[in-house]
Design brief:
13 helices; 8 strands; binds adenosine-5'-triphosphate; Rossmann fold; about 40% helix
Amino acid sequence: MTRSIIWAIGGGKGGVGKSMFAANIAVGLAKFGKKVIVVDTDLGGANLHSYLGIKTPKVTIYDFFLRKASTLDELLMDTSVEGLKILPGSNEIVGMANPRYFTKLKFMRHIQRLQADYVLLDVGAGTSYNTLDLFAMADTGIVVTIPEKPAIESAYGFIKASIYRKLLTVFQKNLKLHDLIDQARNPVNEEGIRNVRELIQRANEISPESVAELESTIRAIDLRLVVNFVQNSHEEAIGPKMVKLVKRYLSISPEYVGSIPFSGKVRESLAKQTSLLMEDSEDEASAALVFAARKLTVPRKSEDDSTKKEPEKEDLTVPSVAESNSEK
Ligand SMILES: Nc1ncnc2c1ncn2[C@@H]1O[C@H](COP(=O)(O)OP(=O)(O)OP(=O)(O)O)[C@@H](O)[C@H]1O
Ligand SMILES: [Mg+2]
């Protein structure tokens, strides 16, 4: 049994186009001839099915949590696109948004068993542990933002929270390092650590034997960035600036996938319970989504070692605000 490639789509802020992007990319991949499963893991805010021609799902992941289904495979629904199936989410019960820890682990194990070329997870908004853990389990994390300051801050905060969550999980048995990472994720911490590079420097003092693993864990994080709702050249420039910002403070190099223009057609297609690429629409947003789907299938370029380099300056005015972003 080969393992499917898992992509997670997140971004911190609500309403920035995560589900729109997930649905269209899923359709795009299926049209390239890939077998695709898209999973609505937005526990409590599920609406991905609306982008894929399904009015009221007959089954949802809720059936898995209720143990009416013993595998997620049983809950997959076909779509009108060949090769594309959806596992719909559920809004049925408020408690769904917070499954218990072991239930979440079981759910994640079962996601890994899904058989397809690509499994796409729409993880929804926010930086709850459930969202971050689903995001962290993916081979590639795709962050969607829009070119507005609150969304950029949320996306930065989400990326930061996801990196620290990953490091805390990987080093949970290394008590000294775990404690240091836990402190460092707070913008104000006793150690005075201001960014990931300083975390590594401090780790080198207290647990030198773990630094190579710490650096390789950070290097292995495969993150991509998408800017949606773009309307002019100034907004076009925000994506690359944000990449520099993340490199500078978080020592990872996200790959910029590109921008998706604002398009009235997105809303029109949603009103018809469908998505742009299902309709073979030929506008700019569709072209950008096809381009993004293609680009995402290309393995990311081998990275320079951002964990060691003195980071470049950029001119996006977010770092001070973003650095004061606090996660629980
Ligand atoms: N490029 C775009 N042009 C125009 N409208 C868009 C675009 N992208 C998304 N929208 C619209 O914005 C709204 C929010 O999109 P979407 O539901 O994908 O956001 P989301 O990030 O998944 O939200 P949530 O956090 O609630 O899950 C929808 O009405 C969608 O049709
Ligand atoms: Mg959504």
